[in-house]
Amino acid sequence: MANSPSGDSMLDRLVRILDSFDAQNPTLTVNSLAHRADVPQATAYRLVDDLVAHGLLARDADRQVRLGVRLWELANRSAPTFDLRRAALPFMEDVNQLVGHNTQLALLHEDEVLVIERLSRPGAVVNQANVAGRMPVHRTSMGLALLAFSPAATLEGFLERHGETMLTTHPQLRRELAEIRRNGYATLDGFIDTESTGAAVPILDSRGHALAVLAVVVPRDAGILPAAVMALRTAARGISRALGA
């Protein structure tokens, strides 16, 4: 039900306020929040006060606002990713210890790669992925592996919406996806960081479709990629079994 002159509901405004925070902006002033959420300043101050009172937002000592601990608590009680993360973590730890570099778990959500878990180690290569952060499909091995093992309808729908963007960096996209399906994994060199290589293996359901993807980011030309891919494939099969796939 709309309750503002612009026609948006109070829930719409609350969601836009919460959605204003990202990896580059973990804290914001109320004025910045109002601008990013397209909410009048007076309304933003009132809504922020209410959200802080309920623990969904928190104020720092300098009066900047960040997402509150209670929001994290609520999200983790029954998030659909809970079982996936719980099943994957022991296998991720094994891969992380063996490879010695960043290991991450992600899925395809709203046409982007959504990272839901990440393990790192001292001295690991630079990695742009963050937990609860999003990455473009066409620039990551995770995205290509998820796309290659998506159901046909999901793949065609994605290409209809984003085919032009994909083809700018992957002109032989369908051939590339077919090769990923044959090999069972995807690799991508230097698309985000020039000194790193990403490798990703799908975690498959009983129909052979990707539930999620397990990936590592390793130094480019370090010679450990074959061992990393083997470890990922073993771990991905273990996670599938743990999930009953």
From TrEMBL:
Gene Ontology molecular function terms on file: DNA binding
Alphabetized InterPro entries for the sequence: GAF-like_dom_sf, HTH_MetabolicPath_Reg, Tscrpt_reg_IclR_C, Tscrpt_reg_IclR_N, WH-like_DNA-bd_sf, WH_DNA-bd_sf
IclR-ED domain segment(s): 70-245
Pfam families for this protein: HTH_IclR (PF09339), IclR_C (PF01614)
Keyword vocabulary terms for this entry: DNA-binding, Transcription, Transcription regulation
Domain HTH iclR-type as annotated: residue spans: 8-69
PROSITE patterns given in the database record: HTH_ICLR, ICLR_ED
Positions of transmembrane segments: none
PANTHER family in alphabetical order: HELIX-TURN-HELIX TRANSCRIPTIONAL REGULATOR, ICLR FAMILY (PTHR30136), HTH-TYPE TRANSCRIPTIONAL REPRESSOR ALLR (PTHR30136:SF24)
Name the record gives this protein: DNA-binding IclR family transcriptional regulator
